[in-house]
Write a structure and sequence with these properties.
15 helices, five-stranded mixed sheet
């Protein structure tokens, strides 16, 4: 029987697939509306209106940076009818879709894309990017294909890149203008603090999100971990290897839907996921504390997993302004926050249950006991004050049953 508290291999997960289809439909509608509002710019992207094209490339295109762009840039510009922004965003479509189109055998004649403020063109989800550097910042390029080469036209200048060099991610890079991103977990998860959307989010939005939860946080409390060193890569690989060794199904779920990890040099937050960056994790860099890092990776990945379910169903019926005690926060929290806390800490307790079998550690034993006490308190709050949809009732019952099982110290496979 399907249980949402159980891990998923994500390959044929109906909740995740439903969410993906919903995002795909939103994107197609946004493209149609953008063409109505700014026809001159978006008409050049008319092939996007072909639903089958979007469906073919969607799996390759799925990435939290792409989701952010749809929700926080494209949709907002359409809703406010900001024609200047829509004209500008038409020159961002290519960095999300172009590589996927080529991989699936669809070759647009050419596409105009804006380089970022570093003179770079990063393709979210693709490990190789173009770096033209000094003198090319914020320039528009026309990208096309001819004779097995990509041609970048910048003004009157034409730069050629071998298709194989840009697309074959298994080969060494031979071009001075191509760079490789850093990734972990068999290249499933990008370690990236340098994408322009990620940098914008850190510099302009992260503080606004966190300051509501902390009276002491400051705007400059979230510096990204840059540069990311080989030692940092090994550290995060080791953290995920622990999950893979002791909880293989959780590892499979993580690499099945987490696509981006943004490490931050901060203690102002442990980690963060948001529904508009779904599939991305912002995480405090706490090397060499592996136990902390693994717990918080599982914690944030589970937030992302539950957000998928919230895209399908409201789960709770309480008013948003209602606030109640949460064992994980100093401030009172809405029911949604307590549901999220309970869900992710059920999974944290499942992790420590598995770890305790293999590692005899007082730290592990005490942490599991602490988490179970917090879970008990959260269940009591939700039983007393929560009002749930039918699906929400099922989810709460699952979590109550799992708490009782965990208390009995019965390990599972």
């Amino acid at each position: 029987m399907f249980r949402y508290t159980q891990t998923s291999n994500m390959s044929n997960d109906f909740v995740y697939n439903y969410y993906q289809k919903k995002c795909q439909d939103i994107f197609i509608q946004c493209i149609k509306k953008a063409r109505e509002l700014v026809p001159d710019e978006w008409e050049r992207l008319s092939w996007l209106s072909e639903t089958d094209i979007v469906e073919k490339v969607w799996k390759e295109t799925v990435h939290p940076i792409f989701f952010y762009w749809i929700n926080n840039r494209l949709m907002k510009a359409i809703q406010t009818k900001d024609l200047d922004v829509l004209e500008k965003e038409s020159r961002q479509v290519g960095r999300f879709l172009y590589i996927s189109l080529i991989k699936t055998g669809f070759y647009p004649e050419s596409i105009i894309i804006d380089l970022d403020d570093r003179g770079e063109l990063r393709f979210p989800g693709h490990p190789i990017y173009i770096s033209l550097g000094e003198g090319y910042q914020n320039r528009s390029i026309e990208l096309g294909i001819e004779n097995e080469s990509f041609h970048l036209r910048v003004g009157i200048e034409v730069i050629s890149i071998s298709m194989e060099d840009l697309l074959d991610t298994t080969k060494s890079i031979n071009s001075p203008i191509l760079k490789r991103k850093i990734s972990i977990a068999d290249n499933k998860i990008e370690l990236d603090c340098d994408d322009p959307i990620v940098r914008y989010h850190i510099d302009n939005e992260l503080y606004q999100i966190i300051k509501g939860h902390s009276l002491t946080v400051k705007e400059d409390d979230f510096p990204p971990l840059t540069p990311i060193t080989l030692s940092d890569v090994w550290y995060y690989e080791k953290a995920l290897d622990l999950v893979k060794e002791y909880w293989a199904s959780m590892y499979t779920e993580i690499i099945g839907h987490i696509r981006l990890l943004v490490p931050l040099k901060t203690t102002a937050l442990g980690g963060m996921t948001t529904s508009y960056f779904l599939g991305g994790i912002f995480l405090s860099h706490r090397a060499p504390d592996l136990f902390w890092t693994v717990e918080n990776f599982i914690h944030e990945a589970s937030h992302s997993r539950l957000d998928q379910l919230f895209e399908i169903d409201d789960i709770y019926l309480n008013e948003e302004e209602e606030r109640y005690y949460s064992p994980w926060r100093m401030d009172l929290r809405p029911i949604k926050g307590i549901v999220h806390g309970l869900y992710v800490f059920i999974r944290v307790a499942q992790w420590y249950e598995r770890l305790e079998i293999h590692i005899q550690s007082e730290e592990v034993r005490l942490r599991k006991a602490e988490v179970l006490l917090q879970i008990e308190e959260a269940i009591q709050v939700l039983q007393t004050h929560g009002k749930f949809t039918d699906l929400g009732e099922v989810l709460l019952k699952e979590m109550e049953d799992e708490y009782l099982r965990l208390q009995q110290m019965v390990p599972t496979g």
